[in-house]
Specification:
By secondary structure, the protein is mainly alpha-helical. 88% of the residues lie in helices and 0% in strands. The longest helix is centred in the last third of the chain and has 29 residues. It is elongated and about 50 Å long.
């Protein structure tokens, strides 16, 4: 279990440096995640919202998947 958590955290840290430039961009992605798409559409930021949500989903999904695969491999 410890190896799976460590692998997920290392993967999350490495992907964070690849996907997000700084903390402000990460916070903006989280903000877009909680903003409904229709509001982003009316503000003219639909595609920015879409890309921000995609980056956040990739970051969480790949990190979690690596952790699960390591756990399945070692158990």
């Amino acid at each position: 279990m410890i190896y799976a958590i460590a692998a997920a955290l290392v993967t999350a840290a490495l992907l964070y440096t690849l996907l997000f430039e700084d903390w402000e961009e990460f916070a903006e992605c989280v903000k877009f995640y909680f903003t409904p798409d229709i509001i982003s559409l009316f503000r003219g930021k639909f595609w920015e919202d879409y890309w921000a949500e995609t980056k956040l989903a990739l970051w969480l999904g790949i990190s979690g998947l690596v952790g699960m695969l390591v756990y399945a491999n070692f158990s």
